[in-house]
Amino acid sequence: MKSQITNRMATVLISVCAGLMALIMIALVGYIFYQGLGHVTWHFLTTVASTFQVGGGIKDQLWNSFYLLIVTMIFTTPLGIAGGIYLSEYAKPNRVTGFIRSCVEVLASLPSIVVGLFGMLVFVNTFHWGYSILSGAVALTIFNLPVIVRVTEDALRSVPVALKEASFGLGVGQWYTIKNVLLPAAFPGILTGIILSAGRVFGESAALLFTAGLTSPDLDFKNWSPFAFDSPLNPLRSAETLSVHIYSVNTVAIVKDAPQVAAASAAVLALFVLIFNLSARGLGAWIQKRMSGKS
Amino acid sequence: MIGVQEKKIIELPQRDLGKETIVQVDNLSVYYGDFQAVKQVSLPIEKNTITALIGPSGCGKSTFLRALNRMNDTIPSARSEGSIRYDGVPLLDAAIDVSALRKEMGMVFQKPNPFPKSIYENIVHGLRYHGIRKKSQLKTLVQESLEQAALWDEVSDRLDASALSLSGGQQQRLCIARTLALKPQVILFDEPTSALDPISTAKIEKLMLELKEHYTLIVVTHNMQQAARIADNTAFFYQGELVEYNATQELFNQPTEKRTAEYINGQFS
């Protein structure tokens, strides 16, 4: 009898905790959407920000966020996957490997403002890259790399040993096995991790304040030469992203509709992060289902 | 044939069981760290026969099997001592091309472990690695190996279907086909039917009896009846030692060692 009561109490407690979490999530997202979505119009998304007049939008910031995300992912994904492969398949269990693994963990737990200040000292000042997409992307790479390394290592480790043995048993070499058996089997996990980390990168602000900067030039969306100073593609121009924009609008803006702009920007940001998370789950499940051939 | 050329004449096994010896193991010991899993085992394996390795769990029979195609190399703490000669070539030699060795000595595992890919891809995986890229050739080899593994009739119309959609017994026959495609000489089976139902088991056993016409089969099995049904020779392992090795009928009917008799009579397992 007693164990039944304990069991019921534990179940209730766990359910309450889970419910509380869901509630906080729904309340938070609901509040952001309630405050902001009303102001989100096509006009808002496709108009440049305004410093003095009411009616500014977030066109450039939205573009910057995506551009920075893409550049960051181009840096992080190959490096992170390579690191994960090394740690899971090649590294021998010794001190050096242990040290590398602790480095990855420490890097993953660095506060992002520290990464931002480091980026400013090294990339912006020492390397003379200035406040730029490049500086921002490299700072975000430092911030994001450990996550992808970790995700890749975990995904590879969770591939059943039996598959690896099957391939080795056919005389197939290690790299060919990794490429053709392990990576495809780990792919759903790696992809989910990459998309989730993309959500984190997309919403990051502290690491970008002093690396990508608080302003952007007026972008000329007709000039796609990466060398023009006002080209959307120029990697050496400063770039205020959406989340940095929320910060700056909330702290320094003098336009009358600043609260609405901030709320609407927050809603757009939250919406995209939500899309990233949901698509990560959906895509992961879909690929898993297709690969196991039960479709 | 496998990396190192060895000109030395092979000594015949001490106990001649009648047929040509293809693998000669002498004083083989395998260690995991400090633990000795296989102790000084010597035995000849005859060509075109089925040799069964029996014994209780943890007696070293699987470790012995995995030493033959150097699968223990994948375990960092494992090391082998002694000598294994395959067609005269010393397999424990550091210069051996492990990849070529495993192509010659295929392996089928305890649990069916097809790749989560199509049936076709499962078979061509090894072939492609070993340099066969021509589509027509791959197709022929896929069909041949599936026919040999008695699976062709069941899957010929759905080679693109996922291997995971097959039943357990079919998956295991696919794993055998995958090995056969590489045209090995020896096939090592590590308890190949322990995860299967009786009907699938019977099919695999029938297949193994057919295969011994062209291949040499070494089977680790937990199932004494299985050894009695299919094996020509049987080796009984106990606590890492080879207790007795003889023609299957002899071993089961007139075991010379007390421990063998006790194990066969089910006094311990």
Q: Helix-strand pattern of chain B, N to C?
A: EEEHEEHEHHHHEHEHEEHH
Question: At the third CATH level, what is the topology name of the largest domain in chain A?
Answer: MetI-like fold
Specify the number of helices of chain A.
11
Distance between the termini of chain A: 45 Å
Unreliable residue stretches of chain A: none
> Can you give the mean pLDDT of chain A?
91
CATH class of the largest domain in chain A: Mainly Alpha
- How would you describe the oligomerization state of the chains in this entry? heterodimer
Question: In percent terms, what proportion of residues of chain A is strand?
Answer: under 5%
Fraction of residues in H or I helices of chain B: 25-40%
Q: Count up the domains of chain B.
A: 1
CATH architecture of chain B: 3-Layer(aba) Sandwich
GO molecular function (chain A): phosphate transmembrane transporter activity
Domain ABC transmembrane type-1 (chain A): 62-280
Keywords (chain A): Cell membrane, Membrane, Transmembrane, Transmembrane helix, Transport
Pfam family, one (chain A): BPD_transp_1
